[in-house]
Amino acid sequence: MSNRLKTGLRNLTWIFLAWIGVGLFLFSQDMARKLVSGEPTPWWHYLTSWMVGISLWTLLTPPILWLGRRFAIERKYWLRRILLHLALSVLVALTQLSLESMILWRLGMFPTLMTGFAPTFFFLALIGFHQGILTYFTILGIQAGFRYYNGYRERQQQALRLELHASELETQLARARLNALKMQLQPHFLFNTLNAIMVLVRQQKGRQAEEMLARLGDLLRCVLEDVEAQEVSLRRELEYLRLYLSIEQVRFADRLRVEIAADPAVLCAAVPQMGLQPIVENAIRHGLAKHEAAGLIEIRAARVEGRLELTVSDDGPGFRADPAAEPAGIGLANTRARLRQLYGHDAALTIRNRERAGAVVTISLPFRALESPAELEVVEIHAVRDSDR
Asked: 81 vs 95, 266, 328, CA distance in Å?
């Protein structure tokens, strides 16, 4: 049996059950009137009459519903369609009355009134013709109600689908923006490193250039393992940073001193991938590269009042008198933009000058564990002093 036939039979069953309910309700009304008036006609005549009537209306309902779909009352043709359905309702009512009259007369119901087809038809038309027209339009009204409800649900589902699609597009757009920011950061770092290697080559420092290339390869290999990730654990981020600093150690030798202190309890925290590197690179370029003396860069990570704070400070010349007016390079600008895309207003990047000399850049993030503490290696890096680290 096809699905279409099953659906049709199921709908016809529901229609028949609905008409059964209507018929029994009206039969109970006749029984109440019979008890009050003492009318001698047997009760089963009334029941048979109503069952015959509702059976005919059950068979006529599907054609009426088809007419309602075929000639739906729409705003554009409302008057023409109403007049058409009025004519059709008269035809359907007369058809139902004719069939009911034939059946009841043959069954011998109400013998004092229904002595033949013509008297039976006249009697039923007298009491049921207007009711037949109302029944026709009632069926159309119920159909229109279901049509409106189904249309409402369809519009609601379509709105939900559009909302979901818009949300997916927004997510894709945010991901594309983040990826674009990452692509700006990483080539920026790569170009700076390659330029430094070219300087070493021109200075005929081949061994140092080869060492920098090897360490750059190690760093790129490590970063590419998480190329799809927007966030990594702080532990992983410190691995990137250690590899990056080993490259800078080749350039600056003993001039570069770095201290990294991270509370083991925060090593599982989620941070933007390659989020610290551009800030540390900025500190090296502006705090160390412009001076001949040795410089110290401190990187600290701690949990403060339920938030993760990452601080990078140097002892260089610092920012100008107003750090907020300092023109942001691509590293700081892109890091701030990535924080905005990833965390909205729940993250911040601030810059300030130290009390003596130097600058401080602080990233404040919502603390969220990305790894299980049981999986963490205890990593505490307190100093990077030579090129072997």
From this structure: 21, 74, 71
Same structural domain for residues 224 and 161? no
Sequence-separated (6 or more) residues with CB below 8 Å from residue 203: none
In this predicted model, what pLDDT tens digit does every residue of 26-71 receive, in sequence order? 778 777 877 777 777 788 788 888 888 888 888 888 889 898 888 8
Q: What is the DSSP letter of 320?
A: -
Number of domains present in the structure of the chain: 2
Residue where a domain terminates, one of 165, 189, 213: 165
pLDDT tens by residue, 280-318:
888 887 777 666 677 888 999 999 988 999 999 988 877
Q: Read out DSSP for 180-247?
A: HHHHHHHHHHHHHHHHHHHHHHHTT-HHHHHHHHHHHHHHHHHHHTTTT-SEEEHHHHHHHHHHHHHH
Burial class (CB in 10 A: 0-12, 13-18, 19+), 372: exposed
AA identity, residue 271: V
How many C-beta neighbours within 10 Å does residue 278 have?
26
DSSP β-ladder status, 231-233 and 270-272: antiparallel
Q: Cα–Cα distance between 84 and 95 in angstroms, integer?
A: 17
Short-list 360, 27, 296, 338, CA closest to 175: 338
Distances (CA, A) of 102 to 53, 105, 122, 124: 11, 5, 12, 11
Residue 41 lies inside a defined structural domain of this protein: yes
The backbone torsions φ and ψ at residue 359, rounded to the nearest 5 degrees and listed phi first, read -130, 155
214 and 155: one domain? no
Say if residues 381 and 334 touch (Cβ distance below 8 Å).
Answer: no
232 in the same domain as 154: no
CA distance 125 to 145: 29
159 lies in the same domain as 222:
no
